[in-house]
Every structure is written in structure tokens, then in C-alpha cells.
Amino acid sequence: MSLPLGDTGPVSGILLGLVFGFALENAGFGSSCKLTAQLRFQDWAVFKVMFTAIIVASGGLYLLQAAGMVDVTRDLFVPSVFLWGSSIGGVLIGAGMALGGYCPGTSVVALFSGKLDGLLFLFGIGLGTLVFNALSTQLEGWAWKQVGPDSLTLPQLLHLPAWLVWALLLAVLLAIGFLTRAARAPDAGAMAAQRG
After folding, report:
1. Residues 163, 155: contact at Cβ < 8 Å?
2. Beta-bridge partner residues of 82
3. Digit-coded pLDDT (tens) for 103-138
């Protein structure tokens, strides 16, 4: 199954990219302040939007699988986890996001929103990609050496039914949404009192 409109080529990617970019821009992710505020636990919008996307996509995938429209074993590729490469790569991309205020996707949104720092961040991504490419043969021996779970989904890894894992993820999203909303309520009241 391929969406939208059965296309698996560039048109599908462009359409989905435009929709995703539009959603990111409307969520305010074209601003580097948004991501750095999330990393300081001051603004939970990034977590809420991205985690909601995970919940919707995984829930939709679960429903399509239950309806027999998607066969996870045939239609989806689940890569193995390379512990060293994933850990160090995660630290490096996290550091880059903390310093630059963007992830790769939001830097493109920033650029097309007219922000120069988005262009500079993309330049850094390109430079980092060239450096990695030059060193890849030296790095792949240890980066790929320690293989973790082999092609397992989260339900398989936890030995739980897919619907239960999805329900637990939904509970996490709702709990974070409730806790961060409650934390902002006094600030809104204080601002209203100051205006009055």
C-alpha cells in the first residue's frame, strides 16, 4: 500500500513534505526558540506535536494492519539497532539541536519561512554529512559492531500486544499534556491579574 494516490515516487514525497512542513510552521517550529525551550522543559509544544504524530501514525498503522490492508512483516522494514552508532549519533544530533535550535526538518521550515539561521543550520548539516562520508569507512567497523535487538518493533521487544503499547503511549501523551497544562495555569492567572 502506498499513499497518497498510490504514488511511490517523488510526487508522494513532495506532497507529504509540503503537508508536514505546513504543520510544523503552524506549530511554530520555524523558530529555533521553540526547540531550545523544549530542551529546557519550558515549552512542551514540540513534544506534544511530535508525540501526537507518533500516536496517530502508529494507531493508523495498527488499524490498517487489523483490517488486513497492511502486512507489517511484508510491507514495513524495521532496521536492527546498532547500539554504538545509534548512541553516539543520538548524542551528536541532540547536541546539534541544542546548539542550533533546529532539527533537520525544522531547519528547512525555518529556511522557507525566511530565516537566515535555518540556512546556516542546513549548511552545517551538509558540512557534517561530508565529514561523516569522508570518515565512514573508518567509523563503520565500530559503529556497526554492537548490534542490539534485531529488527524488532516495540511491542515485540516488550513482549506486549501492539494495542497495549499504543494505549501506554497515548497515556504518556495525555499525562504530559495534563501536567504541562496545569503547570501553565498559574502563570496565565498571574498575567490576567497584572493586566487587571
Report:
1. no
2. 147
3. 888 888 888 888 888 899 999 989 988 998 888 887
Cα dihedral across residues 148, 150, 156, 162: positive or negative: positive
Question: Each residue of 75-105: b (16+ CB within 10 Å) or e?
Answer: eeeeeebbeebeeeeeeeeeebbeebbbbee
- Per the CB < 8 A criterion, the answer to whether 115 and 108 are in contact is no
In this structure, are residues 28 and 116 in contact, taking their beta carbons and an 8 Å threshold?
A: no
Residue 177 burial class via C-beta count within 10 angstroms: exposed 0-12, middle 13-18, buried 19 and up = middle
Q: Which residues contact 142 (CB under 8 A, 6 or more apart)?
A: 84
CA distance 48 to 51: 5
CA–CA gap between residue 77 and residue 150 (Å, rounded)? 12
In sequence order, the β-bridge partners of residue 147 are 82
- Mean pLDDT of all residues in 156-181: 89
Which of 17-21, 81-85, 170-174 comes out lowest in average pLDDT? 81-85
How long, in residues, is the chain?
Answer: 196
